[in-house]
Amino acid sequence: MKITFGIITLNEEDNIERCLNSIQAVADEILVVDSGSTDGTRGIARAHGVSWHHVPWKGYVGQKNHVLSLASHEWVFSIDADEALSGKLLAEIAQLKAHPVPDGISGYSMPRCVLYENRWIRHGDWYPDRLVRLFRKTRARFAGGRVHERLELEGKTTLLSGDIEHYSFKDRRDHAERCRRYARLWAEDKHAARRTAYWFSPQLHAGFRWVRNYILRAGFLDGPQGWHIAKMCAGEVFMKYKILRSLTKQAFPTYTKAGMQ
Predict the structure, then answer these.
(1) What pLDDT is recorded for position 32?
(2) Which pTM was predicted?
């Protein structure tokens, strides 16, 4: 098995070196598709011998599919610049590379663990967050909206147990800003797909998200960080439906007055 690692970037000088250092030992090719970085991302990447490609922003789906089109090898590992391979995952991938892969297997999934305020989060909605990241490019494509892309893969997947380490948020302010941005993009995508929201939707969905995150999935075991994550996730859901509700009312004022308020 030879593996192309694909990374999309924009001003990732704070993250890219950690990512590249973690994959160097198992990467047969590293592709970086950059949408116009103005910081030191390019210099750091070039120092690690990557194949650098400038591609104007096409959205997450477009950028990641462009990586697939450039990959020299059948197997691709899609990794974000703010992620890294844990030692256990690195060892598992090295073991995979040493043996032939059955033709019936199209991909491998692995858990992703977030470092949040200097604590690895291992409960709640954020863990294990299992994702297929290593896959055959000829059986795969990315799809989805502007916020969260998804991998569509034909064939069987199997499990790896090592974590992708996710160094996602700089601080609480960064977390809050991203929640607001993602909520707006999500609502606009859903509105464009003609999805609607009722007056009770923000409270109902946010309440369920908090209960699921903090209680049903034991987010409380992550201490103060677990409490804050549950609160922020519920707040983001509330914003999503509140914005969607606003867009719905603007588009269908008569309908909302009649039956949705």
Answers:
(1) 98
(2) 0.90
Domain boundary among 100, 132, 166: 166
Nearest C-alpha neighbor of 134 from the set 154, 114, 160: 160
Domain containing 82: what range? Answer: 3-166
8 A C-beta contact, residue 129 and residue 111:
yes
Residue 255 has pLDDT above 70, yes or no: no
The pairing of beta strand 29-34 with beta strand 3-9:
parallel
Residues 112 and 200 in one domain: no
Which candidate, 127, 126, 149, places its Cα nearest to that of 66? 149
Closest CA to 84 of 137, 120, 42, 46: 120
pLDDT score recorded for residue 254:
54
User: Are 181 and 68 in a shared domain?
Assistant: no
Closest to 221 (Cα-Cα) out of 123, 112, 125: 123
Q: CA dist 59 to 112, 136, 149, 184, Å? A: 22, 22, 9, 15
Boundary (domain end) residue, out of 115, 143, 166 = 166
Residue located via tokens 């599919």: 65
178 and 162 in a common domain: no
| 154 and 208 both lie in a single domain | no
Number of domains in the chain: 2
Sheet of strand 105-110, all strands in order from the earlier edge strand to the far edge: 51-54, 29-34, 3-9, 75-78, 131-136, 105-110, 156-159
